[in-house]
């Protein structure tokens, strides 16, 4: 399966484009413009990705629209990989030294799927000693690109550990939501 996924630069660009907004179907020609390559290469890769179950297609009139198959067994991992390669996740990883001493950085899967957050949801959760000026700039830049507000919380490691041991409601919610670990080990993040 991995051999079929990562051999083509066109395929990688298609996946990055489509996983950036997995709920939005995209027409072949729009995808050609987005990945900036010839239509035959895009069609060939779309056929391959559809045949292995990562994409779905539907016809509407004389157009074929493609969308991510969120039911694919590989979807969560591909979404996590993409989150580390582009957008806010990539910016956090790229600026890790300027951000300070981060033990854990987590993005919610709802955020990665393009869903609007409720008041209680946290899109980005960071544990550690963080340079808030750098983080606020990264978040503000991503908000201006996406046009969506990003809910984030930063917590010192000792407070996180204390609240986790006390079964704090907020921390329990953060631990129970589906997520992508940008920085840190998931077992340590969830363990007491």
UniProtKB/TrEMBL annotation:
Gene3D superfamilies (alphabetical): Winged helix-like DNA-binding domain superfamily/Winged helix DNA-binding domain (1.10.10.10)
Name the UniProt record assigns to this protein: HTH arsR-type domain-containing protein
Lineage, opening ranks: Bacteria, Katanobacteria
Species, as recorded: candidate division WWE3 bacterium RIFCSPHIGHO2_02_FULL_38_14
HTH arsR-type domain boundaries: 1-90
Coiled-coil zones: none
Record-level Gene Ontology MF annotations: DNA-binding transcription factor activity
SUPFAM superfamilies per UniProt: Winged helix' DNA-binding domain (SSF46785)
Signal sequence, start to end: none
